[in-house]
Amino acid sequence: MVAITDLHLVASGKVREIYDLDDELLLVASDRISTYDAVHPNPVPGKGAVLTAISTFWFERTRDLVPNHLVSVTAGVPAAVRGRAMVVRKLRMLPVEAIVRGYLSGSGWRDYQQTGAVSGVRLPAGLRESDRLPEPIFTPTTKAGIGHDEPLDFERLAELLADRELAERLRESSVTLYRHAAEHARANGIILADTKFEFGLDAGGALTLGDEVCTPDSSRFWPVEGYEPGHGQPSFDKQIARDWAAGTGWDKLPPAPEIPDHIVARTRARYIEAYERLTGTSFTDWLVRTGAPETRAVSG
């Protein structure tokens, strides 16, 4: 078995490292957590494994709907990163974030208040914050390496991709995935308010789903119980840590402050709860399936 230290590091982001495996890549999700685009000095134990486990669940569940890049979560994965890593096919990634919204929240709510539309999609008058939309809407953005992503209407998306038919397939695939995931999530007590997909083209030019899928880091998850439009909703993501950070007086510029142990514990529990609700299985089962080294440390 190859050691992680023997592999060539291609890229390192706020949460993930990417290693080259010749014709494939190794994606490793760390336990790092960021708020307001700054990484905190202490991790959330098990967070990387939860993100990998949830993405794997969706990749396996939706592979007949849309092709994806997942190859394996065991074969070819170094022992030290088992449970939080996956081997994937290389893709030529599209320079956009494929966002689908089923509910009015976040930047979509702010845009609607100002213009009555989101990314050029006109919505009915009189909607409230957190209202369910009549139909899911596709609201892509640019994928900024530095600075903030910029919203795109469909015409600008087609221009950016220089391929209108590809833009149409991207929209159709994104909405199809969202509908499937939202229906499954709701049946298991979670509202998938909105989510971000990333796609690329494989060696044959086929549109292929990559990155992560419908995780608490790439989505807005709300509990079904207690859902009430007209205001913001509690969520199954790092909102606990974000709320704590916002209340510290921190100026939201690096370096980020250390997160207290009780906030780390609550955040970890929320991530694990999201996985277990969505999959109907124990998080420990995932760690055992993949031979993760931290089985005992993060079970429960």
Beta content comes to 15-25%
CATH class of the largest domain: Alpha Beta
Tell me the count of domains.
Answer: 2
Mean pLDDT: 94
CATH topology grouping of the largest domain: D-amino Acid Aminotransferase, Chain A, domain 1
The CATH superfamily name of the largest domain is ATP-grasp fold, B domain
Rg, alpha carbons: 19 Å
Coarse structural class: alpha+beta
Helix and strand pattern: EEEEEHEEEEHEEEEHHEEEHHHH
The total strand number stands at 16
Q: What sort of overall outline do the alpha carbons produce when their principal axes are compared?
A: globular
CATH architecture tag of the largest domain: 2-Layer Sandwich
Number of helical elements: 8
What are the main properties of this structure?
single chain, 300 residues, alpha+beta, Phosphorylase Kinase, domain 1, D-amino Acid Aminotransferase, Chain A, domain 1, 2 domains, seven-stranded antiparallel sheet, five-stranded antiparallel sheet, 8 helices, 32% helix
